[in-house]
């Protein structure tokens, strides 16, 4: 009933389901396949283990179908099935806020090299590609980065603090025809790092110019707001998703950042694992849509 209601609701762009049982399997299959070609359906199924099945039956009175059969139904209908509640929320954020990638090729931009390597490994594990940079992109980045940068994907910003650097580097990557999505690591959250650094400086030297530290803090706060706005502009221009990972987080940080006037939002996760997982599911859904159109 809900699926068929969401199908015709113009305000619903992404469907999220938590289910434990299906009583009319044929109706569910047909509805899911129909709506899955129009809107992403993200689903968490409870009661997949024997213990879970028993618990579900105790409060719904419903018997659970074979998990392997249900997984096959998801593959055939385009349902994006997740295994954990947080994954449900992460994918809801990504699908509702970002353009779909056209393919599996990922450009990675990172404030530090090790983080980029870890993210590249995660991409490989989730069937995403991390292609080599072409000479044209290297030429653009050569003009922005120090001479000792790696000239490779992931692009390591080598800890540079120039606020224009991540903005211009991101645009060079998203404009590159060799990538379908960009993951950026550690660009947001530097204001928190600075806060901790300033607190430590004041403790060790009470004569530190606090006005100067406050001014730097203000500049970083403004940079983060402008950076998020710039991401949404680039996504509208190039129709590619940009997913971020926070360097550090505090009570002010979110997963979604709304930008007035933009149909897209800034999306930032706390870990590379969550960012790569969300992107991999978006790519899988794109593959499903492409197969339906063949």
The average pLDDT value, as a whole number, equals: 90
- Assembly state of the chains shown: single chain
Task: Quickly give the structural class.
Answer: alpha/beta
Low-pLDDT stretches = 59-64
Q: Approximately how much beta-strand content do the residues carry?
A: 5-15%
Order of helices and strands: HEHEHHEHEHHEHEHHEEEH
Q: What is the count of DSSP helices, taking H or I runs of 4+ residues?
A: 11
What overall geometry do the principal axes of the alpha carbons give? globular
Cα distance spanning the termini = 29 Å
* Backbone CA Rg: 22 Å
* Number of strand segments: 9
Helical coverage, percent range: 40-55%
Model description:
There is one protein chain. The chain is an alpha/beta fold and 294 residues long. It has helices spanning 2-8, 25-36, 50-60, 67-77, 85-97, 113-125, 135-142, 164-175, 190-204, 210-238, 272-293; strands spanning 15-19, 41-45, 80-82, 106-110, 155-156, 181-185, 242-245, 256-258, 265-269. It has 11 helices and 9 strands. It has a 6-stranded mixed beta sheet, with helices on both faces. Strand 8 and strand 9 form a beta hairpin. It is globular and about 70 Å long.
């Amino acid at each position: 009933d809900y699926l068929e209601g969401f199908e015709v609701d113009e305000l619903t762009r992404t469907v999220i389901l938590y289910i434990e049982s299906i009583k009319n399997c044929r109706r569910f299959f047909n509805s899911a396949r129909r709506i899955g070609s129009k809107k992403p359906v993200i689903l968490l199924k409870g009661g997949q283990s024997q213990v879970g099945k028993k618990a579900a039956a105790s409060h719904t009175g419903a018997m659970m179908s074979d998990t392997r059969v249900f997984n096959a139904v998801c593959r055939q209908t385009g349902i994006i099935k997740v295994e954990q509640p947080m994954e449900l929320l992460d994918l809801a954020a990504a699908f509702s806020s970002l353009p779909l990638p056209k393919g599996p090729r990922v450009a990675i931009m990172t404030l530090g090299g090790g983080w980029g390597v870890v993210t590249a490994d995660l991409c490989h594990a989730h069937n995403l590609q991390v292609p080599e940079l072409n000479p044209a992109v290297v030429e653009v980045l050569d003009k922005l980065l120090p001479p000792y940068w790696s000239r490779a994907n992931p692009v390591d910003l080598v800890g540079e603090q120039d606020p224009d650097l991540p903005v211009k580097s991101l645009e060079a990557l998203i404009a590159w025809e060799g990538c379908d999505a960009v993951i950026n690591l550690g660009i947001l959250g530097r204001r928190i790092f600075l806060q901790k650094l300033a607190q430590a400086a004041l403790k060790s030297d009470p004569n530190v110019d606090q006005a100067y530290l406050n001014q730097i803090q203000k500049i970083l706060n403004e940079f983060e707001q402008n950076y998020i706005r710039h991401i949404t502009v680039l996504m509208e221009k190039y129709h590619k998703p940009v997913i971020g990972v926070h360097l550090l987080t505090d009570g002010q940080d979110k997963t979604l950042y709304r930008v007035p006037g933009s149909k897209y939002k800034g999306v930032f996760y706390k870990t590379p694992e969550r960012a790569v997982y969300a992107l991999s599911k978006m790519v899988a859904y794109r593959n499903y849509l492409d197969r339906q159109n063949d």
